[in-house]
Amino acid sequence: MLSQDRAIEIARDLVQSRTEAGVLDRRGVAAERTEEGWHIWFPWQDPNMLGGSPHVMVRDDGSIGDFYSTQ
Questions:
Q1: CA 32 – CA 57 distance, rounded (Å)
Q2: CA 53, CA 19: separation in Å to the nearest integer?
Q3: Residue 50: its pLDDT value, please?
Q4: Domain ranges, residue 48
Q5: How far, in Å, CA of 10 to CA of 51, rounded?
Q6: Could you give the 3-state DSSP secondary structure of residue 41?
Q7: pTM for this entry
Q8: Residue 43: which residues within 8 A CB-CB, separation 6 or more?
Q9: pLDDT category, 65, cuts 50, 70, 90?
């Protein structure tokens, strides 16, 4: 089973590799365990910031199940 810390690391690496530099600046991290692995997302630290959050589904084998951003 993949640890939460490792899932966050995988998700962070994916987001940084597929988006513009600094996309995770001023963002927190949230994680929720699912049946297949981990749902990781990066909400704004400031709740008054507008815009979506990157979301990554990381399977227990370390592979990516899904990657999307909310708007």
A1: 10
A2: 12
A3: 83
A4: 4-69
A5: 23
A6: strand
A7: 0.91
A8: 27, 28, 30, 53
A9: very high
